[in-house]
Design brief:
The complex is a heterodimer of chains A (about 110) and B (about 110).
Chain A (H helix, E strand, L loop, with lengths): L3 E2 L4 E5 L4 E3 L2 E2 L5 E8 L6 E6 L5 E3 L5 E5 L4 E6 L8 E9 L7 E2 L3 E6 L1
Parallel strand pairs in A: 2-12
Antiparallel strand pairs in A: 1-4, 3-9, 5-6, 5-10, 7-8, 8-9, 10-11, 10-12
Chain B lengths: L4 E3 L2 E4 L5 E6 L6 E7 L5 E8 L2 E5 L7 E4 L6 E5 L8 E8 L6 E2 L3 E5 L1
Parallel strand pairs in B: 2-11
Antiparallel strand pairs in B: 1-3, 3-8, 4-5, 4-9, 5-6, 7-8, 9-10, 9-11
Classes of the chains: A mainly beta (about 110), B mainly beta (about 110).
Chain lengths: ~110, ~110
Amino acid sequence: AQSVSQHNHHVILSEAASLELGCNYSYGGTVNLFWYVQYPGQHLQLLLKYFSGDPLVKGIKGFEAEFIKSKFSFNLRKPSVQWSDTAEYFCAVSYTGTASKLTFGTGTRLQVTL
Amino acid sequence: EPEVTQTPSHQVTQMGQEVILRCVPISNHLYFYWYRQILGQKVEFLVSFYNNEISEKSEIFDDQFSVERPDGSNFTLKIRSTKLEDSAMYFCASRGEVVEQYFGPGTRLTVT
């Protein structure tokens, strides 16, 4: 079965610290990879996506992610987090030929302290 | 910027009652989805809909669930006889030709 693993369930960082959130997916062929963010009380918003091409993708608000095919990973990074980055982050994958349904990881709750 | 909307934002119902959750996808989108998130758990796929028919559904989407696109704008999820375990946040999503899905704000369903 298709699955996505997020290793960190709850991360607490101080402002200006660097962030890396892990995401691994199970093999299933050609994949499309996404990171979504859910700010408190708000809906899921797309941070960034990877379909093909350059494995290092840049998203909104200074986030980036690197697709490493050999490791089935798509880790999210940000060099310097801000208090406003406090949110829940979800990695998701869709596989070609599955009507593009998204399979989500369990999410990582990021808390940024001042 | 166009967005997916959902109504109501919160629905409370009694066990055994029918509920209909409504979604208005982005107007030129062709693919529609329902997901749910039980409190404290991950977002789970329920069903995808394209060209007026279900294209894929999960194990969760049993005979108690149905979807419909009754007109050119709405996309509904009906739960015929709600159970306590149906309590969750239900998200609608839509997409165009590009794979990227846009999510609505969700409907919190509470079954008592």
